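agent> fetching stored inputs for the zinc ion docking request
agent> found them:
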Amino acid sequence: MQEVYKNIYLKELALPNNPLRSLNFYIVKGEDRSMIIDTGFNLEETKQEILDVFRELDLKPENTILFLTHLHSDHTGLAAYFQDMGLEIYMSEKDGTLMNNSVAQDNPRWEHIVEFGRLQGLHVDQLEIGDHPGFKFRPSAPIRFTNAVPGEFLSVGEYNFEIVDLKGHTPGIVGLYERDHKILFCGDHILGKITPNITFWGFEYGDILGTYLESLARTYDMDIDHLFSSHRFLVEDHRKRIEELYAHHEHRLDEARDILKRADRTTVRDVARQLQWDIRSRGWDDFPASQKWFAVGEAHSHLEHLRAIGDAEMEEEDGILYYKSV
Ligand SMILES: [Zn+2]
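agent> prediction call returned; pasting tokens
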């Protein structure tokens, strides 16, 4: 554990068998109350590591709040456990509701994901919902949470954090901004080295990549000296990193435009197959099932952005979506 700023500590929690490797777990220590940010996976060893931190920093459950940046299981895995321990939990209404709806195996959310898989053309790969990372690591129990409302403030120790809307990586991801100290806890909104995954969440969430790019633009304008993100190294120059992320998505959009131009019309799955991916495998057929879900979600968010800016059109035939160049 290291003190990364006055009374702000960082402990890396391992994420076994996950390409993200570890979660940056943050603790803000105050006199009257303290705060922990996100929890890591629901694993016994992670729980023990956090309990060690409680002992080391002398944190009391009744005076400690848990702030959840977003619903992903590497951030929320132990939420129910800490709730039972007596911590008050803050989470955005959108992500909290989505998360609580994910508990039941027969919740319509999972049915929708299977339906989307078909619309995206994924039935060809015969994927099962059991291979979907969100389903596999879904929470075991719903939690009660206090709404983390963007624009409201949370004060902990000498810090007065403004809750900020960072939506894009998930529909309701929120961060904490401390204006005087120029600190932003940003969850997975901006990461060093890794490109945050931007996936398709359903048509009701609209052009989510566009939403993400707008959130990046707002973050670009913020005065930040200390960007505390959730994975890997701490980014020193947030503007430089945001420019790299813009360039990444521009390149992706160009790739998708080229793919659409090559055929009359293309399914989301076939766009995903033709995009360049970093993972070491020979081709689409060697992709692990979970990576196919990811890849198709990412391709879809880019195709929907192209549609939103007028560079692509979509049509549905026999329950499958086809995108084409405009
Ligand atoms: Zn995430």
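agent> quick read of the result: Residues 34 and 187 are 18 Å apart (CA to CA).
agent> awaiting further instructions
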